Structure formats: structure tokens, C-alpha cells
Structure to design on (541 residues):
């Protein structure tokens, strides 16, 4: 099935919760209400004609005004996929977890929490994944400023060459 | 005899441990030799490659993609190339595609050789490792001649590849394949069909197909569960539809379906298929240019795409968002090792500690690919 047909089916069932259908190639996507994300995903997974048995990718993007969670679903049976997005406020981003539908969400959501600071409600083990547990801030946010040192370890290196260059300016 | 008082032990394995294929740590809760669970602790090799992408621009990011998975860097190169081409609608010249596939499949051989060699070494067979590395060195020599590097290649460009095949390279490649194909059988005799080796891997940590899809296992790990699925065939990209090759799957021939031995055997058999593809590609390669004309100041139009390639560690997904400027707005890499690591905690319950090493080796986990 083509993505747009899939989105029509979703829209027919969740008319109010599908906020936007963006048909722009190469990958069209839909934006859905965060509160309905789990229900829509369950429909996509359980419906026989859609059968999205694989959560292929889950990532987040910081758009400065809001944060988006991007969910790439895929069906091994029908060889088609869908892209779902939810928009979250930047000051307190919270999304429901997809872990109960696809186990692979566990680690991907931990990564999003780690790098973008999104809270996933209902997640079984929401800890930082890649960064140290006491790292300040969320590195993939656009306004993240790298701290100059971490536990007394400098994150920048003294360089006589760079010092000369900056002096020249 | 009265019963002994026992208690659960918490052990630390890694981050510096010879069998962890990079820097990787496990917190093992064990009852004697049997694990209750092994909790992976990753991130020691996190170099924030996704953040770097936002700072260096599209062309400039190509060498960084090598570092996502330095054991099969050709695939990360190719994936980045394909993602940019898809965003900007660039067509790669035929010869460029052939060069890409040839380089990538040689790289798959090298990567599988390393995986198989370390698999033997991890469970105590030292000699096969040296045999595997001997063969891999020759591939590295070939690739070095092609692009000047042995590990982090930076061979591909947006729109094609950096350099055409040097003189005589095609003949050298074919000669290597003639030399290498019988070595796969030698490898089987040396390692695969060794009774101790089989005993160590068969029936260890089997994964069912439903579980594999649930945890998003990809590539050889998925095929070992009996799923005939290969991005090269099923969501074709590049020029793979032009080649005749099979997809080896696990059959549970030594134990149960989807066990560590199946994962190992799938890789051995995939090498034969790569040899098949390489023979066809080296014979059929057409003339012409190897790279399309791409502006130096590359600015793809606003948009986003996800692409998937079949790397040596399976389906590698790149999600790229462009805001129309010379710098990608966001790049996300979903790799095979990342998914494989997510299932380790579940699989480790009830395993012997020594089998954890076999499990990690059979999943072919590469730490930099998890951490990026």
C-alpha cells in the first residue's frame, strides 16, 4: 500500500486526532495528536491490511518552537511503511511510550530522552543511554551549549595555534 | 551435607574486555555461573556524530560517516550518499553505482571475516582469527589501492565515488575472488564444523522470529531466525536488482532455529553470495564517469527522507532532515548493532557467563555503531 492510502485509512478512523497530512515527497508523513499516538499505532499494528509489525526507527528533532518525535513504521508482511510525527511543546515535552507495542522502542526512546530530553510516560526504564547520567542538558537541542568542563576534565583543548588565530581577529 | 548458603553476585564486565568488540560494559547479575541478567551499559564510544553532521555540511560529513561503523565504512558512506541524492534528486552514473557495489561487497567480506574470526577467538579458538585476518588484509590492500585508506575509507561522494578503479584493479579483484572462494570451505573445515565450536554455539540464546521483529533485529541476525529478508532484494536500491544472488537463512541445522550457530552460519554463507555479486559486478562494469556533477556548495531542497541499506550488520536506516541550507538540520542513524544490543538483556537471562561472550560475538555487535 502507498503511504497516502495508509494515511487515508488512519484519517478515516481517527479523523480528529490526525492533525495534518503532509504529502511532500520523498517521504510523506502525518502529524497526530500525542494523546492518540498509542491508539493509532495499535491500529496500524493490528489491522490485517496494514500489519506494521516493525518499529523501524524512532527519533526526535528539535525545531526550536517545538520538538517532534518521528516514528517510522514498517510492515514485513506487506512491505510498506508509514511515518508518524507528534509535536510536543519544548518546555515540557512528554509523549506516551510505544514500548508496549514494539520492544525496540525501549532503547530508541531512551536515546531520545537522553539527547533531546523528551519524557516518555509509561516507559519501563527511562535512563540516559549514551551520555553520562549526570550530564547537564540535552545535546541535540539546538540551543545546547557544551559545558567547558565535566568533572574537572576540560572539553576544549589549549592550542597555541588557535590562540594566535583568535588574537589576529 | 547441609545446603550451602548462596547469594547473587553482581559482576562488572568491561568496558575494557577483549570480547566486547570495542568499549562496552555489562553489569552482570549472576547466580554462580548462571546469569540472572546482563544489563548493557553503552555510550563509551559516543562521539556525537549526529550533532557533528549539523555543523560540517553535506560533503564534509562523508568522512565522519566512516566512523559510525568503521568495520564496514563503505556502507555508511553509501547510505549517506543515497540519502543526499534522494533529497536532491541526483542520479548516480552507472559506473559509479558499480564502483559503489564492488567496494561495498568487498567490505562486507572483510567485515564478515572479522566477525567470524573474532567469534572463534572469543570462545577460545585463536588460530582461525589469524586466518581470517590474513584474508581480510588482502581485501584491505585492494581497497587501499582504490581509495588510499584501509579502514575509514571516505571513498564515496554525493553523486558517485571519489576515484575510478585503478589500472589492473578489476583483474586483481577477480584473482582475489578465485583465491578466496575455496578459503570459505577451508574455514568451514577449520572452524565451523569443529565439534567444540558447535557445542559452544548451538542452542545458545535462540531468538524466535516474532521476537526478532519485535526488537527490530536486522540483517544476518534476522535472517538467522528464518526470515528471508534482505534490503538488497526486498527494497532494492542501487543496482542490486541486476545481480543474481541468494539470501541464506538460518535453518537450525546444529541446534534450534535462530541460535548463535545459525547467526554464525548465515554470515559464512553470505560471504559466498557476496563473492557471486562481486564476480558479476567486476565482469559487467560499464564505462563512463563515476560521479555525477554536484555543486560544491550542496544545498538540497527543504524536505526529509529515510533510506535503508543492507550493511554487513543489516538494515541501516538514515533519517535526514534538510532545511534548504548547506547544513543538514538533523541526521539520525539507526544501526543494526543498536537494535541487537537492545535484546541482550532479555536473551541473557539463564545463560552461562561464558555464553554471554558467544552471544555478543554471534550478534556481531560493533560498539561504535551503537554509540555513534
Amino acid at each position: 500500500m502507498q503511504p497516502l492510502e495508509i494515511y487515508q485509512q488512519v484519517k478515516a478512523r481517527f479523523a480528529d486526532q490526525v492533525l495534518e497530512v503532509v504529502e511532500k515527497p520523498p517521504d510523506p508523513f502525518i502529524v497526530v495528536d500525542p494523546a492518540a499516538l498509542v491508539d493509532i499505532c495499535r491500529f496500524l499494528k493490528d489491522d490485517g491490511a496494514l500489519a506494521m509489525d516493525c518499529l523501524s526507527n524512532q527519533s526526535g528533532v528539535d525545531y526550536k518552537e517545538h520538538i517532534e518525535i518521528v516514528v517510522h513504521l514498517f510492515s514485513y508482511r506487506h512491505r510498506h511503511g508509514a511515518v508518524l510525527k507528534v509535536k510536543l511543546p519544548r518546555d515540557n515535552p512528554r509523549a506516551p511510550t510505544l514500548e508496549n507495542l514494539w520492544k525496540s522502542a525501549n532503547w530508541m526512546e531512551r536515546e531520545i530522552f537522553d539527547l533531546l530530553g523528551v519524557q516518555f510516560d509509561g516507559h519501563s526504564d527511562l535512563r540516559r543511554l549514551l551520555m553520562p547520567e549526570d550530564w547537564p542538558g540535552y545535546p541535540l537541542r539546538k540551543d545546547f551549549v557544551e559545558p567547558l568542563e565535566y568533572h574537572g576534565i576540560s572539553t576544549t583543548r589549549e592550542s597555541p595555534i588557535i590562540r594566535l588565530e583568535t588574537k589576529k581577529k | 551435607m547441609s545446603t550451602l548458603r548462596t547469594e547473587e553476585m553482581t559482576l562488572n564486565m568491561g568496558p575494557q574486555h577483549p570480547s566486547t568488540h570495542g568499549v562496552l560494559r555489562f553489569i552482570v547479575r549472576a547466580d554462580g555461573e548462571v546469569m540472572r541478567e546482563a544489563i548493557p551499559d553503552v555510550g563509551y564510544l559516543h562521539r556525537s556524530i549526529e550533532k557533528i553532521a549539523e555543523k560540517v555540511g553535506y560533503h564534509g560529513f562523508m568522512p565522519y560517516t566512516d566512523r559510525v561503523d568503521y568495520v564496514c565504512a563503505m556502507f555508511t558512506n553509501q547510505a549517506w550518499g543515497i540519502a543526499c541524492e534522494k533529497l536532491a534528486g541526483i542520479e548516480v552514473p552507472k559506473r559509479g553505482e558499480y564502483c559503489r557495489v564492488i567496494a561495498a561487497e568487498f567490505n562486507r567480506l572483510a567485515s564478515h571475516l572479522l566477525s567470524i574470526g573474532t567469534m572463534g577467538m572469543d570462545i577460545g579458538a585463536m588460530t582461525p582469527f589469524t586466518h581470517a585476518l590474513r584474508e581480510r588484509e588482502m581485501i584491505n590492500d585492494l581497497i587501499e589501492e582504490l581509495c588510499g585508506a584501509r579502514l575509514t575509507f571516505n571513498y564515496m561522494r554525493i553523486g558517485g565515488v571519489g576515484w575510478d578503479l585503478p589500472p589492473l584493479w578489476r583483474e586483481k579483484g577477480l584473482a582475489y575472488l578465485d583465491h578466496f572462494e575455496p578459503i570459505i570451505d577451508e574455514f568451514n573445515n577449520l572452524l565451523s564444523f569443529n565439534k567444540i565450536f558447535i557445542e559452544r554455539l548451538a542452542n545458545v540464546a535462540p531468538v524466535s522470529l516474532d521476537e526478532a521483529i519485535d526488537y527490530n533485529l536486522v540483517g544476518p541476525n534476522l535472517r538467522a531466525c528464518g526470515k528471508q529478508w534482505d534490503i538488497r532484494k526486498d527494497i532494492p536500491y542501487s543496482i542490486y536488482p541486476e545481480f543474481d544472488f541468494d539470501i541464506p537463512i538460518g535453518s537450525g541445522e546444529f541446534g534450534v532455529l535462530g541460535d548463535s550457530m545459525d547467526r554464525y552460519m548465515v554470515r559464512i554463507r553470505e560471504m559466498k553470495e557476496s563473492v557471486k555479486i562481486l564476480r558479476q559486478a567486476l565482469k559487467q562494469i560499464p564505462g563512463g564517469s563515476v560521479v555525477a556533477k554536484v555543486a560544491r556548495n550542496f544545498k538540497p531542497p527543504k524536505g526529509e527522507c529515510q533510506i535503508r541499506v543492507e550493511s554487513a550488520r543489516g538494515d541501516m536506516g538514515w533519517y535526514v532532515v534538510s532545511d534548504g541550507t548547506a547544513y543538514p538540520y538533523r541526521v539520525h542513524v539507526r544501526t543494526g548493532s543498536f537494535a541487537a544490543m537492545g535484546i541482550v538483556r532479555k536473551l541473557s537471562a539463564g545463560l552461562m557467563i561464558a555464553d554471554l561472550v558467544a552471544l555478543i560475538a554471534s550478534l556481531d555487535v560493533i560498539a561504535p555503531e551503537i554509540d555513534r
